[in-house]
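Dear Dr. L.,

I hope this message finds you well. Following up on our conversation about the binding site, I have prepared a predicted three-dimensional model of the protein together with PBG. For your records, I am including the exact sequence and ligand specification that went into the calculation, followed by the structure tokens. Please feel free to forward this to your student if that is useful.
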Amino acid sequence: MINRPRRNRLTLGIRGLIRETQIQPANLVWPTFVQEGENQRTPIVSMPGVSRLSIDQLVADSKKAFELGVPAVALFPAIDDSLKNSEGKESLNPDGLLQRAVKELKQQIPDLVVITDVALDPYSSDGHDGFVQDGQILNDETLPLLAGMAVAQAKAGADVVAPSDMMDGRVEAIRWALDEHGFDNVLICSYCAKYASAFYGPFRDALESAPKEGDKKTYQMDPGNVREAIREIHSDEEEGADWLMIKPGLPYLDVIRLTREHSELPIAAYHVSGEYAMLKAAEEKGWLDYDSCLMESLISMRRAGADMIFTYGAIDAATILQR
Ligand code: PBG
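The resulting structure of the complex is given below.
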């Protein structure tokens, strides 16, 4: 035998020399849930190891992540029910929870990249990402609020705004509004191909943001579709997106690869709450090794073409990479 592929797997050193895909803490974004209060950490039952954090705790954990080499956090606020209404007005409040969290993070850790979520659902009494009228999710009527939300977040100091709502035309609306207010240096990470996925369940537990009625299938994408993703890629590029996000991650590796082939923009993959929960649940049962499965999941998304990965396991992964 002349060809023996196993020769290239012989030792740790050889394997390291020829490894095609690397992952570093620099590729990771830590998504995290913010709540009111002080010194509060509220565990999320369906996401073992993840808690909703009051702002002081958020700063402490973000410092830890940053010192481990994780350059970015993505913030999701848990808004008190009394502040939710069908218009989602609280999202514009300059002193709202998310805005205060951004300010505090940028003050305490100026070099941390702070990414904010632009979507109605955490603020909406309907639990939808757009305004609801007679059971329909309104598109164009929702855009000004999304644009206003992005401006409020930029004013607080957000480096990157990330629309996760899947309304048509929102990237353009947000770009215009940001520029009009002098925020031409604020990036847009567009959730470009976001599928109507059951893997978001634990996230909705964390924020108590599940739709009160109906589902999100008239705006998030059908899991069976991939040509539609190309259409979304092109329109988000034309509308001025700086990064393209594919979500969820592992069940949609083909979409990540396709995006890599159809765009020159940086790609983010979102290793979502349900993907994380599965690993943790299997670990608790003693059925899987969480550390190895987490790293393998992350490397798969990088191999498929993602530049960065949003993962609840960011601090775990950075810790593992330090060993
Ligand atoms: C809502 C939003 C969701 C996630 C991020 N932003 C849930 C949804 O669309 O219902 C899910 C993230 C995760 O599951 O980790 N705009």
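In brief: The chain has one domain: 22-321.

With kind regards,
A. P.
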